[in-house]
Amino acid sequence: MTSIAISDDEIKKSFVESQAKMIEFQRQLNSVRSQIQAKDHERRAAMLTLREVSLFENVPLYKAVGRMFLKDTKENILSGLNSKIESSKDEVAKLEKNAEYFDRNLKDVESSLRELLQKRYE
């Protein structure tokens, strides 16, 4: 009878540890997903700005620097927007890999929790 009590304690300890891991992976996954949304929003805004800037010729263009606006050439603004779009795409790709990693780990922890519960009730 004491061996059953020890195994119950071990199962409870494993359950608590697995549950803590699961909560941490969920938190990290949610954080990565929100970062993906922010980067995607940034990319779409840059694409829209790029499209609008490309429509007009011989119009003075300004870029925001802190709390002020500086007049700049169209080429500089277009290259800045293109680099922003590319960097956002790269960041989204990296973040999606991180999201897949956390999602896979979350599923692993959930399956181990199910196994612990099955052991407990067998």
Automatic annotation (TrEMBL):
SUPFAM superfamilies in the record: Prefoldin
GO cellular component: cytoplasm; prefoldin complex
Recorded GO MF terms: protein folding chaperone; unfolded protein binding
Keywords for the protein's UniProt record, in alphabetical order: Chaperone, Coiled coil
Record Gene3D superfamilies: 1.10.287.370
Coiled-coil regions listed: 78-112
PANTHER family linked to this entry: PREFOLDIN SUBUNIT 1, PREFOLDIN SUBUNIT 1-RELATED
Family, per entry: Belongs to the prefoldin subunit beta family.
Protein name: Prefoldin
Species this chain originates from: Rozella allomycis (strain CSF55)
